[in-house]
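chain below, 111 aa
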Amino acid sequence: MEENVTPVVEQTTQSNGGSGFAIASMILGILSVISCCLWWVSVLFAVVGLILAIIALVKKKDGKAFAIAGLVLAIVALIMTALFTAGVLASIPLLDEIMKNLPDAVKNMPQ
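prediction:
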């Protein structure tokens, strides 16, 4: 009993790096959003992710959606980092006032 066996040929597509840049930009965008409280880390991740997203979009290869997601996340992370840093810098005078009044507040606490 003979069976007809037809070989299956798989086609693989090779990308010229556009998809890799796109995925890397999205990962860096996610990391930059997560680390927005550490401004030096967030800015580094966001800038590198932004550059990789632009390179991936210019190459016009696979992964355009990943590149756009990385681009948007990097921009959002830069905005969040700027707002967080501005908030911290704006609160420094308030912290100075709290530290000046702290000994009096501790002294007047009921025991």
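The two ends are 98 Å apart (CA to CA). The chain has three helices and no strands.
thats it, cya
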